[in-house]
Amino acid sequence: MPAKETEKYKLIVKPSTAQVRPYVVGAVLRNMKFTQAVYDSFIDLQDKLHQNLARKRTLVAIGTHDLDTVSGPFIYDAKVPQDISFVPLNQSQAIRADKLLEMYSHDSHLKEYVPIIKDKPVYPVITDQKGVVLSMPPIINGNHSKITLNTRNVFIECTATDRYKAQIVLDTLVCMFSGYCDQPYTVEPVQVEYPDGERVQYPTLYYRQQEASVSYCNMLTGVNETAESIAAMLTTMSLSAKPQGQDKVIVEVPPTRYDILHECDIAEDFAVAYGFDRLAADMKMPPTNTIGQEFELNYLSDKLRLLLSQNNYTEAATFSLYSRIDMGERMKVNLENESWVKVANPKTTECEAVRISLLPGLLKTLSANKHISLPLKLFEVSDVVLRDTCPSATRGTGARNQRHICAINYNVKVGIEKVQGLLDNIMVALKVPYAGDNNSQGYYLEEKEHPSYFPGFCGSVIISGVPVGHIGLVHPEVITNFNLNNPAAALEIDMQKVLELINLGK
Amino acid sequence: NMGAEGMDVQQQILHALEKNGVVISNEFAVSEKETHQKVVGAIKSLESLGNVINVKQIALKTWECTDEGNNLATSGSHEARLFNSLPPEGRSLTDIKASFPNSNFALGAAMKNKWLKKEGEKVIPAVSAIEDEVQIHLKAIAAGGENSVPDKIKAEYKKRKLIKEVDMTVFEVSKGSAFTTSVMKQEAELTKEMIESGQWKGKTFKPFNFKSKGRIEQRSGYLHPLMQLRSEFRQIFLEMGFTEMPTNNYVESAFWNFDALFQPQQHPARDAHDTFYVAEPGKTISVPEDYLQKVKKTHSSGGYGSIGYQYDWSREEAHKNLLRTHTTAVSARMLYKLAQEGFQPVKFFSIDRVFRNETLDATHLAEFNQIEGVVADYSLSIKNLMGLIKGFFEKIGITKLRFKPAYNPYTEPSMEIFSYHEGLKKWVEVGNSGMFRPEMLRPMGIPEKVTVAAWGLSLERPAMIMYGINNIRELVGPRVKMELILDNPLCTIDKWTPTGNNS
């Protein structure tokens, strides 16, 4: 519909908005009929758009106003917080913008939006000709222009950091609510004037044509319908469609269907219209003929897991995320010297770090099972993660998984020879010979200190001269740190390294 | 344990049987001066040998001393003690009454027996020696020889509360069909020496008590129930001809985790709220450059028949490292690799860990295992996807399936998979699925006519249903109680039938 007064329904954009929230769109809904239900639905749609499409108001923020309480044209500017003062929604006193943000940072509903503009040099603000503040996006509207059940004419403005999204949000609002105007499905445009001279009219209400091939729709769905039949079914999905020849359907995509990007979106609507139950009644396995294959590392890991259970060890399944304390201090390990992966945004301390060893997890499992009779023998064959700068080893990421075997024997009295026996069995299974004095191939043990183990009772497991892990008595301090009180003999080896070395030897 | 002693009693019983034909347990006990309990024990042992003896249980009434009766049997009757305490010249009545307990009774009885006579204020012994009939009787009764005491006298003692009548079970033993006087030692164990020497042939064995509980010397080893279920699912995929993907990289770039899947950079799932971003190493080292350019273009301005998302795609955003939110990132890598090597139809699967930065509760953890199946072939349709899903779920006993249209950023069409839960009497969601979008496949170099079907579910959810667990921390993590592992040594898929018991 043409604008009643083109001069009045303008949004003039000032240059400083570019620093914080460059884009704005607007529209006018004339002679709306608001019942409580319509009003609630109006607010609800805005909330939903804010949460999803507008990505929690960071991309787009919607402001809706009673047009009759303000006088256009409207100015969209960005000012220093101290220069902005107005009566915000549901308040009675004017409050300065910086104080307002302070206030809302404690408000359960609004606090998550405060960081969007808080530290910016200027805050966005929309005012009318008389200086009345309509809104300070994305935080809050002014009380002056608030919509009530008596509102007849609605002014919608959406400020944004994503221009395209703002257009979609506005189109959606307008399409959903223009039905309540006295003249249903009409809207009056608003012109946006950018400082560089660009002039754009909103809402765009962009309808576009999307072609869909009949053979593609049929192929994807697994049916054999004609162009006419497909077009008819699409129409039942509120997509206006017409057949064009035998193999094409032309669909008019309305502004509300911004999710339609490709003909596969059309094909899906067709499939839904056809009926999934109907399709399921004729389902068939694909003719794809392949022979299955296990990932070798997993194949070998499963064999080793079985072997460890055959040695009377019980499998634990622990988390790969740890707190720093569990991985560092409690294990007497200085994390500064380790290449561990640090999580940027953990919600709890339990998710601060990705494990570099399986031992803390097993110690925690022991701690939760003090009611079980001793000896307690646990194992786990699973991945730890290490930082690494090699692109190929890390698949381009900068960190790699490493498959470890870890076993612990916790008892009133326990010696290293207990887990040494286990290690011997593992090596026999992997066909790694014990390196005698003259044999440089094969494995042997050598005393070596490790902070988590008791000095004098810790050794390095070495294969063909390369250290692959540790074996020893867990340090008494570590035992106590995990709320345990019996000695424990433990073993942890890098299974992938072992496999590499064995294969090299071949 | 009878031991050698018991042997003797058994032997004695057999000899008595040989001589007399019948043995009554309580009479035998008296005559052999053994306790009745021991005799009964010996009879029972003999009985267990088979048909050596026949035993008949008889209920008898028998006389037993009360506590007082036993007292008198030991120390003598009051009257006898009184008599024995008197010096030849006797004692004054007053004296006796003051110092001797039960004096009145004792005096009366002693006088009646004419053991004492009165002489003025004194009583003096009237005879030189006495026989304490009461003690003799009580001793006899205590030893089981009550028949030696006349009934009239027994009635008196009963009145005096020295004896009481009790019920007793005695056994009448007679010769059995396999009667023999030689009782052999009963072996409990079959030993190496017996076998080697052949001696076992000449021995009798005490049959094993099958009602007793077994004994294990050392706790055996176990595999974790969740890992066992994982093995079952791996097996199912292999049976269906699927190849396992190498998923051993928890740290992934946003590029492979999101952008390669055509998930826009503005999508809420990429929020710090839902995804674990990595601080160190914060930036991914590299992704294939040519491919990156194609992905960038498809996102920002479209291509391959798509209008794209119309936004400014950020290289920096794509190079952020995170803990992967799904193993679909690996599926993307594999499909890209396949396209580079020359496309051919494939079936891929993976079961591995993924990470979500969610608020934790009884059913949600920060990390869990995702099961994923992917099939890439020419002209695959939704019907094929449904067929694959049906084949897969049938393997775990789920046959009633329905498919509901859904939304996924990287599949179109998408379907939620529902199965009918017999116990809850409703349809519950068991997985998610879809056909990968062309905007994802084409930039990789996957040919136009190829469509890719994929489906997934979590491993923990079916495990919780199978093992009847409501809190996921009871299944996985360090706080799992070992009882879960020890009580579930074997995982068989047929347990996974959603019946009323495990809801």
UniProtKB/TrEMBL annotation, chain A:
GO aspect biological process, one term: phenylalanyl-tRNA aminoacylation
Annotated coiled-coil segments of the chain: none
SUPFAM superfamilies membership: Class II aaRS and biotin synthetases (SSF55681), PheT/TilS domain (SSF56037), Putative DNA-binding domain (SSF46955)
Family annotation (SMART domains): B3_4, B5
A molecular function (GO) term: magnesium ion binding
Subcellular compartments: Cytoplasm
EC number: 6.1.1.20
Occurrences of domain B5 (ranges): 205-281
Enzyme class name: ligase
Recorded GO CC terms: phenylalanine-tRNA ligase complex
Pfam families attached to this UniProt entry: B3_4, B5, tRNA_synthFbeta
Family the UniProt entry places it in: Belongs to the phenylalanyl-tRNA synthetase beta subunit family. Type 2 subfamily.
Protein name: phenylalanine--tRNA ligase
Native source organism of the sequence: Cherax quadricarinatus
Lineage of producing organism: Eukaryota, Metazoa, Ecdysozoa, Arthropoda, Crustacea
UniProtKB/TrEMBL annotation, chain B:
Main location: cytoplasm
Any single GO BP term: phenylalanyl-tRNA aminoacylation
Protein location: Cytoplasm
UniProt-listed PROSITE patterns: AA_TRNA_LIGASE_II
EC number of this enzyme: 6.1.1.20
Requisite cofactors: Mg(2+)
EC primary class: ligase
SUPFAM superfamilies: Class II aaRS and biotin synthetases
GO molecular function, one term: ATP binding
Alphabetical list of PANTHER family matching this protein: PHENYLALANINE--TRNA LIGASE ALPHA SUBUNIT, PHENYLALANYL-TRNA SYNTHETASE
Subunit structure: Tetramer of two alpha and two beta subunits.
Protein name: phenylalanine--tRNA ligase
Organism for this UniProt entry: Cherax quadricarinatus (Australian red claw crayfish)
